[in-house]
Structure formats: structure tokens, C-alpha cells
Write a sequence for this structure.
């Protein structure tokens, strides 16, 4: 009977307005007289949230009742961006809200823009996790995300005098999308010591004693699917001091300050996201974060499993855990510990369960990004886990020895323990040994891990343990939300929005590749998106750019391997060329805007120097009257998910120019092409598969191949080698002070001239510049360009994260979707 009175949520414009106003007045206790855009956002979000909650509860009940296998996606990063527009799309009442907000005197776009990004991630890996959650819900997989509820997400970037400055991102002031579950807590232990003894019945007992306890509190975030009523759950853990007797004793004994200090120390665990991307630094707090989150998540998963009253051997039939990189590897050790120390299973029975449960996704081959933790650090923080790691290693090495008798070299190469000083635990090796499947994120990358960093493990386990699942992106956010007009145009030709659920349907666009009317509309939409970005640039950078110019975009984390330095050197090369041209020659040149965006890790000095150079080059070029509209250089501050949603639909060309073999996949390459942009790229990561799908004639490829990189590097030191002369001219220009303070950029130059040019900037420079000249030529033929654009989009179906999730489900998780009977 209570159902009758339970909130069903609005369906009409009038009901939406009433709900919105009710929330502003009662939930937020605000007067309608000073209802600003933020209040309107809050009311709108709360109204849509009510609708989601109903389906969320039903989904959870349905999944519990169905009692089938669930997938748990463990990721230290979920780069969700904004939630309201996505909630509107999935609830399906955006138009109702638009009309309602209109009547209340607001534009829906302004309201959507009020929301603070949920920026709990660095870049690709974190955004991938967010796309996966979207796909898992949209495909009706019973899936949970588990992560940390950082109080501070990735820092906000400001540019001051051309330098990056980091501002803390405190984002939790008002977050209608999270639900604190103060009743869902887990106590997590740190430090202490291991007590091994024989109990009264003569049984060996191992117990981890004393140390300190920190409590994990669950915060749940609803994850709605598109075109389904499935709403999955993302559970984020927040740390607080545990209210054990210990603390009470301190308070009561008058040790008030130290009790408060304990509290703050506990809260520090989930305080801040580490801002490193593709670099690991063995900080104790990071290890604490990892264990805190793994222990809480596993405890929660086991609690749910135990309610089913099944035998432990059935655990892998109920639970699949996917490790997003090695960050959650301690979950492997923790599950083994619980099974043997707490549940009394034999080692082998426990280990069989563990390895059947876990899958590990690798996202990098860069040696500096592979996680290692020092043995003394683990010994101190997690003494019992260290013992178990040693036992895992012992049993593993025994099996290796049986297969490769007397190969001591092999044993030391594959050992989970690196025999250095101090000794280190190699987390990737532990993750491989503890999982039944290991996957890379693009074909080339998955091949490379098998032939380089993990080649010995292929010998040990055979090739079948290693597989590829090429990354994908959600077309809901990255096409429909970011580029509504393009999505609408596509739908008008395809007859429905079904392509948002089955992206391969885009191939039905191929017949329109030469359709004059269609091409005109296609080009108009790109132009409108560029006008919008130009307005944004004027507001944020004070620079007026011509929307008719070719927009050349490189937005991603700043890293030497991604080679933003190659791009800016190319820009300077172009600048020098323009300066030396006659006015007639200049008239023939296609105007360009070079747009950069991305954050540097705060401790990554080279990356910060690259940002500095880009900004200084921009200052000079943008006000040079010889150049005018022919070239503008823009660095967009604080690149994040919501900025990406504006930038990506506005690009003509985007740059994916990593040294071949270094970028595991890249995912923005997919987003740009899906939005009708062409790409310039190296034969790296997913660029290769994108080229295969859309056709070589639609991609501007350049540069050396991955297979040649090693020899080239060797040649820099030992061969008859000299730096590219055109690049040397660029260096001369920088050194002569053209962009101010030449000393500031010396390191960028000497990395190439004096330190072996590890990233092959000089080797690829000529090919890069020539390819840009080719782009200039191609862009002049707009007609052909637009055809390429349409044809590329038509062939992008493969790169949906829906395909990707289905591959994980089939080949790694062995899990089926849970059918939903939609109500009439
Ligand atoms: C590790 C230890 C300590 C502190 C930080 C880290 C850390 C954090 C984040 C290490 C790496 C990351 C992020 C890596 C990442 O984003 N990798 C990207 O993953 C994408 C999705 O698969 C790929 O497309 C990119 O190629 C890859 O660079």
C-alpha cells in the first residue's frame, strides 16, 4: 500500500516545475525570491534524482533477487564529469525540464553548466572507468564500481604568467548525486604485528593484532543506463576515525588534542587524489589509500556473498573483480588472507578461488609507471600481507622451477620480489599471478606487453592468459550530449537514435558521404561548434580566433611521451615559415588555430616547462601583425571532462602523436573522430585500429614505427646521428630569446640535443611537418574534407565502450546481462 504514496517523480512540465520549486523551498530551505542559477540547478538535479532513486532501488532489488554473478570494477579513479545532463538523457525528460526551466526564467544550458565536475581521476584511465560504468548500466549488467571518495579531486589549473598553478578542487559542498550510507561501514586495520600460535585444539592460528583502525564509510552514487531502467551503483569509500574504545579512552583521559589529531590522520586517507598520471612514486599515504579501499570493498563484496549462503567454492560464480591497473592489487592478497586466516580454508583451495575471481587490466608499458612498493614499507603497514605475498611468490616460483628446472635467471626475472636494496614488490607481477586473465587496452599494446614487460609470464602461463580488449568510449556522453546537433542530424538520416545503443548502425551514414545537402548540414554543425569554442577562447584567453581557420587540437595530460613538445616545435617552425613569406605567399596559406590543453603533474618539471613554452609562444605569435589570422596559439586552462565536451566537437584536426609504442591506447582519439574531426597521429595505441576501421585515406599518419624505436634510440648514442636541421632552427629561435627568458626552455632543447632524444622528437620532426603541410592542402578542399569526416564517423562503430564491455563480459567475466522487463 505504501507504494501508492511513494514518489513516482514528475512526468509533465507543470509537475517538474512544482518538484523543482518544492526542492528549492523545502529540501534546500531557500526562498524563491533569490532563486539564482545555482538554486535552479539544485532543484532540477534533485527532481531528476528522485526519478533515478526509484529505478535504482528496483535495480538493486532485482539484482539481489536474481542472485546471479556480479561484476565489481575496482578503480582508484572515476572521472565522471557532470551528472545532470546524463541523468536527463537517461530518465528521458530533458525536454520537459527545458520547458519548465524556461517558464521559470532559465536556459537549460546555463543550469547544466552550474554543476561542478566530479573530477576523481587524472585522465584516460579514470575516464575509461566512467565510460565502463555507463556501458555496464546501459547493457543491464549487474555491476558495481568501487572507488575512493576523495575530498579533493584533480587540482584546478590556472595559468599565471605562462606557468601552471595548482588550486585545490574542493567539490563536495553540494553534491546531490551522492548518498552517504552511515550504516554501511567497514573497519580497516593498519600496522600492528602477526601472532602465530597453536590454539587449544592444536590448530595453527595466524592473527594480525593491534595497530590502528580506520573506518570506511560508504557513499553511493547512482549510475543510470541509457534506454533502460537499470541504475547501477558506484560505491565510494570515505575514511574517518573509528570510534573504538581506544579513542574514547584518549578523550576521557584528557588527551583531547591527540585524539583529534588521530581523527585528522584517519580522514587524510581519502583526502586527496594523487595527481600523477603514468608515474608511480612510492608514498606511504598512497599505499594506505590502496589498502583502505581494497579492504573495504572486499569486505563489502564478501558480506553480500555470504547472504546467499553458498559454499566458498562458488565465490567465483558469483563474483568477478576487475582490477583497473595494479592500483587495487592488494585486493588479491586481502582475499587470500580472509580465506585462510578468517575462513579457515586451505591455501590451495583459497588460491584457486582468488585466481578465478580476479582479472587485471594493464594500461602502460612505461617502466616509470609500473608500481613497486618497498618491502619495509609493506612490512610496517601490512605485516600479514607481506607474509602472504612471500608465500604467493614461493608457490609461484616452485611451479616455475618445475617448468624451467635450473633456470635461475628466469626465477629471478619473474619473482614478485625484486632483489634490490631495499627489496621491492612488483605489483604487476603479483596482479598477473593472482588473476586468471590479463588484458591490454589496444592491439599493439596487448602485443607489446606479451613481447616485452611480461614476456616471461607468457612462457610460464602460455599465451591464453593474455588477451586484448581494445578501449571504447560511451557515445551517449561523447556524441549525443557533447554534440546534440550532430546526433540529431545522424538520427534524422538513420530514422532513430538506435545508434546510441548499437553504434555499428553508424555505417548507414555511408550512402550520404557524397550527399550535397547532408554535407552542408554536417559542415554547418562543425562550424557552429567552432564558433562556440571561439567564444569560449575569447572569454578565457582574451584572444579572438577566426572560426573559419583550421582548428588543430591537442588536449590530454602533459607528458613527454605524448610529445606536446613536438607539436609546439612544429608551431614555431610554422611561425618561422610565415615570417619568411611574401604577402602573396601568405595569402595562399590556410589559417590555423593551434589549441592546447592539459594538466602537468605538480612535480613533473619538464611537463610544466612545456606548458610554459606553449604559453610564451602564444603571447608572441598572437600579437605579431605579420601573422594575423594565419596562426594563433591557445593554451586552454584547466582541461577537464566538461571542457572536453566543448572542445572535442569543435576540432578539425586533433593530435595523437606519442612516440610509437608508448601510448597504451588513447581514448580521446576515438572521441574526436566520432565528432567528425580528422586526426594526425603516429602508429601507436588505438590509432592503428582506428586507421584500420576508417581507412588509411582518412587519417594523417606520420613518424617511425614501434618496432624501430629501440634501434633509433641506440643510434642516438652510438650511431652517426645528428638533430634534424629544421628543428635546430626552431631551437635557435628559442635560444635567441624570441619567446623571452631563453634559459627557461633550455631543458627541452638539451633533452633532444644532449640527452639522447628518448622520445624521438627529432627523428619524427620532418615527417610531422610534412604531414601538417599535407593537412593544409587537404583542408583547402573542404568538399573532400567533409566527405572524409562523414565516412570516418560512419566507420567508428567498433569504438563504443558497449562493444568493449561485452568483450570483457564474454572473455573475462563470464557474465550475462540481467534482463529488465520494462513497465508499460
Ligand atoms: C600510480 C602510483 C602512484 C600514484 C599514481 C599512479 C598512477 C595514477 C594514474 C599511475 C597511472 C595513472 C593513469 C594512467 C592512465 O591514465 N593511463 C592511460 O589509460 C588509458 C585507458 O586505458 C589509455 O588510453 C592511455 O593510453 C593510458 O596512458
Amino acid at each position: 500500500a505504501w507504494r501508492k504514496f511513494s514518489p513516482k517523480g514528475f512526468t509533465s512540465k507543470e509537475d517538474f516545475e512544482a518538484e523543482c520549486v518544492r526542492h528549492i523551498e523545502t529540501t534546500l530551505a531557500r526562498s524563491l525570491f533569490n532563486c539564482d542559477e545555482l538554486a535552479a540547478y539544485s532543484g532540477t538535479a534533485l527532481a531528476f534524482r528522485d526519478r533515478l532513486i526509484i529505478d535504482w532501488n528496483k535495480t538493486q532489488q532485482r539484482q539481489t533477487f536474481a542472485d546471479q554473478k556480479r561484476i565489481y570494477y575496482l578503480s582508484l579513479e572515476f572521472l565522471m564529469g557532470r551528472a545532470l545532463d546524463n541523468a536527463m538523457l537517461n530518465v528521458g525528460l530533458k525536454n520537459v525540464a527545458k520547458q519548465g526551466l524556461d517558464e521559470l526564467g532559465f536556459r537549460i544550458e546555463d543550469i547544466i553548466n552550474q554543476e561542478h565536475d566530479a573530477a576523481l581521476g587524472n585522465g584516460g584511465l579514470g575516464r575509461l572507468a566512467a565510460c565502463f560504468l555507463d556501458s555496464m548500466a546501459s547493457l543491464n549488467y549487474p555491476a558495481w564500481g568501487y572507488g575512493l571518495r576523495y575530498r579533493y579531486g584533480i587540482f584546478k589549473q590556472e595559468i599565471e604568467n605562462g606557468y601552471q598553478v595548482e588550486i585545490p578542487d574542493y567539490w563536495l559542498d553540494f553534491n546531490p548525486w551522492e548518498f552517504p550510507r552511515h550504516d554501511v561501514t567497514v573497519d580497516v586495520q593498519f600496522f600492528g604485528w602477526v601472532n602465530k600460535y597453536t590454539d587449544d585444539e592444536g590448530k595453527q592460528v595466524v592473527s594480525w593484532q593491534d595497530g590502528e583502525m580506520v573506518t570506511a564509510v560508504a557513499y553511493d552514487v547512482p549510475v543510470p543506463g541509457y534506454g533502460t531502467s537499470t541504475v547501477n551503483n558506484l560505491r565510494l569509500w570515505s575514511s574517518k576515525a573509528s570510534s573504538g574504545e581506544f579513542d574514547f579512552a584518549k578523550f576521557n583521559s584528557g588527551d583531547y588534542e591527540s585524539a583529534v589529531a588521530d581523527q585528522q590522520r584517519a580522514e587524510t586517507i581519502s583526502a586527496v587524489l594523487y595527481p600523477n598520471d603514468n608515474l608511480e612514486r612510492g608514498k606511504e599515504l598512497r599505499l594506505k589509500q590502496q589498502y583502505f579501499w581494497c579492504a573495504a570493498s572486499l569486505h563489502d563484496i564478501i558480506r553480500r556473498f555470504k547472504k546467499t549462503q553458498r559454499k566458498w567454492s562458488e565465490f567465483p560464480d558469483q563474483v568477478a573483480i576487475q582490477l583497473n591497473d595494479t592500483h587495487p592489487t592488494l585486493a588479491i592478497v586481502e582475499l587470500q588472507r580472509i580465506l585462510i586466516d578468517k575462513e579457515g580454508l586451505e591455501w590451495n583451495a583459497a588460491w584457486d578461488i582468488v585466481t578465478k575471481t580476479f582479472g587485471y587490466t594493464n594500461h602502460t608499458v612505461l617502466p616509470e609507471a609500473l608500481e613497486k612498493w618497498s618491502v619495509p614499507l609493506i612490512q610496517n603497514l601490512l605485516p600479514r600481507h607481506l607474509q602472504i605475498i612471500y608465500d604467493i611468490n614461493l608457490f609461484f616460483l616452485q611451479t616455475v622451477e618445475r617448468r624451467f628446472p635450473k633456470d635461475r635467471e628466469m626465477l629471478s626475472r619473474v619473482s614478485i620480489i625484486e632483489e634490490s636494496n631495499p627489496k621491492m614488490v612488483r605489483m604487476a607481477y603479483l596482479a598477473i599471478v593472482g588473476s586468471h586473465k590479463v588484458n591490454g587496452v589496444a592491439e599493439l599494446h596487448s602485443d607489446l606487453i606479451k613481447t616485452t614487460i611480461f614476456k616471461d609470464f607468457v612462457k610460464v602461463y602460455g599465451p591464453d592468459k593474455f588477451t586484448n580488449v581494445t578501449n571504447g568510449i560511451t557515445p551517449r556522453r561523447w556524441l549525443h550530449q557533447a554534440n546534440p546537433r550532430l546526433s540529431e542530424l545522424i538520427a534524422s538520416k538513420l530514422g532513430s537514435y538506435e545508434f546510441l545503443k548499437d553504434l555499428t548502425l553508424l555505417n548507414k551514414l555511408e550512402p550520404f558521404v557524397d550527399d550535397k545537402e547532408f554535407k552542408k548540414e554536417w559542415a554547418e554543425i562543425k562550424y557552429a561548434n567552432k564558433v562556440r569554442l571561439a567564444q569560449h577562447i575569447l572569454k578565457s584567453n582574451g584572444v579572438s580566433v577566426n572560426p573559419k581557420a583550421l582548428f588543430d587540437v591537442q588536449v590530454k595530460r602533459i607528458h613527454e611521451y605524448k610529445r606536446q613538445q613536438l607539436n609546439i616545435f612544429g608551431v614555431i617552425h610554422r611561425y618561422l615559415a610565415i615570417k619568411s613569406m611574401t604577402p602573396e605567399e601568405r595569402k595562399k596559406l590556410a589559417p590555423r588555430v593551434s589549441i592546447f590543453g592539459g594538466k602537468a603533474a605538480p612535480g613533473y618539471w619538464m611537463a610544466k616547462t612545456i606548458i610554459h613554452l606553449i604559453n610564451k609562444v602564444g603571447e608572441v605569435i598572437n600579437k605579431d601583425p605579420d601573422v594575423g589570422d594565419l596562426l594563433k596559439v591557445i593554451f586552454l586552462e584547466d582541461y577537464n571532462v566538461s571542457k572536453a565536451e566543448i572542445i572535442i566537437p569543435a576540432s578539425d584536426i586533433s593530435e595523437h602523436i606519442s612516440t610509437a609504442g608508448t601510448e597504451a591506447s588513447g581514448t580521446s582519439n576515438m572521441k574526436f573522430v566520432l565528432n567528425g574531426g580528422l586526426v594526425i597521429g603516429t602508429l601507436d595505441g588505438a590509432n592503428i585500429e582506428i586507421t584500420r576501421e576508417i581507412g588509411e585515406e582518412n587519417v594523417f599518419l606520420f613518424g617511425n614505427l614501434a618496432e624501430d624505436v629501440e634501434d633509433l634510440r641506440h643510434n642516438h648514442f652510438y650511431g652517426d646521428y645528428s638533430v634534424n636541421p629544421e628543428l635546430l632552427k626552431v631551437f635557435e629561435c628559442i635560444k635567441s630569446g624570441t619567446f623571452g627568458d631563453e634559459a627557461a626552455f633550455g631543458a627541452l632543447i638539451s633533452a633532444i640535443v644532449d640527452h639522447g632524444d628518448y622520445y624521438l622528437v627529432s627523428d619524427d620532426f620532418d615527417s610531422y611537418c610534412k604531414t601538417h603541410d599535407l593537412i593544409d592542402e587537404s583542408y583547402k578542399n573542404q568538399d573532400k574534407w567533409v566527405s572524409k569526416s562523414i565516412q570516418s564517423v560512419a566507420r567508428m562503430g567498433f569504438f563504443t565502450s558497449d562493444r568493449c564491455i561485452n568483450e570483457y563480459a564474454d572473455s573475462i567475466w563470464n557474465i550475462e546481462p540481467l534482463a529488465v522487463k520494462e513497465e508499460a
The longest strand covers residues 212-224. DSSP finds 34 helices and 24 strands in the chain. Confidence is low (pLDDT under 50) at residues 1-6.
